Protein 1
Amino acid sequence: MTAGGDPAALGQLLRSRRERLAPADVGLPAGLAAGRRRRTAGLRREEVALLASMSATYYTFLEQGRPVRPSAQVLDALASALRMSAAERRYLHVLAYGPGSSEPASSASSASAPPERLDPGVADLVQRLEPFPTLVKGRRWDVLAANPAARELFGDWSAGPPGERNLVRWMFTTDQAREVYLEWEPEARAMLGRFRLSAARYPDDPDVRALIAELQRDSEHIRDWWPRHDVAAIGGSGSKKLRHPRLGPADYSHVVLQVADNPDHTLVTYSPTAPLGSGQ
């Protein structure tokens, strides 16, 4: 890894996005030269280089994970050429420059994050939001606090050992998550994409790296989806279809808030909006 970035992961992201696009998606003919047959799906490297106005050799170095340190302008050109979303663009910059950087970093790779300590006022707020299910997750997506309503809806994370009080682990390794989330697969994909974007801010944190390794070991879905480098931004609000163990299925609205003094701590609170009925 170069200072502040992860060129190998950057290359994997570029390759995965290149392979998802067809020439027609970006306004290119079927091939760059007559007589050349396309053996595999996706754009060729030279086609991406053409779209991004750079040499094919330079783009190849990037995709191979060589430490060539691209400029912000190069990354923006590649993001546009590969039709990246806003979340993917942010992820691209994190992989190139390191967490929290918009330009190449001059310092060494990021240090391990300190132990997480939840502000007592935030913990108190979680309890005061009862009876609305409310929780706080940390940088690894460990559940740092949850009120009784959240524990009833999602399960009592505090009953398990510390290493298992994790939202992503719960989502991918428990039957309960599939009972609670009525649209489990799209919700699981979205959660993994948001977690991936968050985890990219801590490329050298041994706890985060250990969690990712454990998730890949324990979940077939994560082993299949993780190499795709899908990312998603954390939204401020939304809705989900959930099944409450006592009240049954319902639409829930949720609001997501970052703690001002510690942006790695995220509070999520839910409220039911309408029952779905026994037929759903």
Note: Residues 184-199 form the longest helix (16 residues).
Protein 2
Amino acid sequence: MPDEEIRDELPEDLDISGYVGQYTFPDIARRRIPAVIYLVVAAGCFLLWITHRGPGHVLVNQGFFWVAVALALIGLYHLAAAWPLNVRETDALVAASGRVGFAVGHASAQLGWTGLRSRPVWRILLYSSEEPPQKRGVVLVDGVEAEVLFDFVEDNPEDWSILRRR
């Protein structure tokens, strides 16, 4: 197969190029699927190590034990980090606009993660509704419980005068 025919593609549920309408971010709880796979393979490797170890079995060695331990740890981490994404971007924008204390015009939401267990957090950038915006703010909203974790509001320091019509 020529190199020109080999293409890398996004999974269908992540490809938004042909999508019309509001985009829904995939739930992070999907991490449970690979977690179960890792744990099943770890159990299989451990069972093979238990039942086939010793000098009479040359194909099963200490490596099966260590692979089982590593896969079990990775699987447990995936289970621990599989937070449900209960708060969608529109809910996060509502929580953020209620916190900043001004009428919101333009806004942007970005999903990020925080902590060792990768808890989802929405990062919301907000501008006031005046033209040009007089205030701006950033708000962090928890993606599991819709709790506002952090907010910062300031007067907009950007100079928009060159964009005004004359």
Note: The first strand starts at residue 104 and ends at 114.
Protein 3
Amino acid sequence: MSSTVETASDISPFQVDIPDEALEDLRRRIAATRWPSKELVPDRSQGVQLATLQELAHYWATDYDWRKAEAKLNALPQFTTEIDGVNIHFIHVQ
């Protein structure tokens, strides 16, 4: 049995550049989340607890510094390529 793997043809530099409009849209969608009812048990046996998810959503919508994360990523050498028809984004750090 043999398999053939295509090699990458082009490797292109990449920078994260998230438009302000996309971040505002994300914040709006997080704020508009329709939450389920509270879990019926006091532990995580039914999955992640509602309060934990709401706390995380609040953090992402109001406190997370998206631009700081973008700058940290862009300080690293990033690239994109296509392998076997799949677009790959990677960071190359030795």
Note: Residues 79 and 90 are 5 Å apart (CA to CA).
Protein 4
Amino acid sequence: MLAFQIAKGKLKPTEKRLPRLRRGWALVRVRLAGICNTDVEILRGYHDFRGTPGHEFVGEVAEVRGASASTKKKWLRRRVCGEINVSCSAYGFRPVCKFCKRGSSTHCERRTVVGIVKHDGAFAECLALPVENLHVVPEHVTDEQAVFVEPLAAACEILEQVNARNFKSVAVLGDGKLAQLIARVLHTTIPRVVMYGKHEKKLRLAGLAGIATRKIHGDSSDSKGIKEDFALLVEATGSPTGLTLAQQMTEPRGTLVLKSTFHGAARVETWPIVVKEITVVGSRCGPFAKAIALLRSGEVDPTPLITRTFPLAEANKAIAFAQRTGVMKILLKPK
């Protein structure tokens, strides 16, 4: 199969054997893969990953190994998306780690992470995942919608961590792909969602979804120009400077949710957190079932965020294009 691997900060096309399957694992033929900011950061050295990147995908199950006839019948030829954290149980470790015992498998001590940590990802014609990680894509949810399930689930995680119904308004700091999904998810529960961003075209996309927008400069001048504060704020700028502004915009005893991941360090003063008694919540992966339900019901439609689809063979061209100003979601499509 064709797969792309990280080599000196670039994607290198490689002809590889199909993944070898463990018992209870499935071979998934990728139908669409999404390029995420995390993939760009991986090229810059994030997690020091050296395999095949890509963790957003929709595919079709081509094979299941070591499973019962009923399990194979359930999964073969089904369209699926997959949770990216592969935990103890999938590798046959006994006993499982303390986090898996608690039901927190996304923090498994021995986990691999698809396309990010020691597990080849979706910038390939096929990938391997445990059946326990798979979710069936409903018939009327398109591939173009289903490829967003993983980042949409990450947005839904905020609703698991914070009781959104306690808030009448929320600010989302950032206007990129994840910020757009977060704003749409929060808008299903919170009456007033305000997105702060520096790109007019991206802010217009949010406006079309009924989200209020505010244009900012994205530099130190914003700290003087923004006077509004919020009891709930989500930082999703993908920038090391975003946290400073987020602390300023969170009101005393408010809640600040952090969603940004990037390679490198952010210089942060912690005194606003202490003085204002801010609750800071780190937020990562989330519930796939909730994300799929939002797509099925039509409450969230992410397809307006798609800018362009490239053939998998043009992955290097695609990831360069994805980093252009104003570009939103770029997809890769194997033949």
Note: The mean pLDDT is 94.
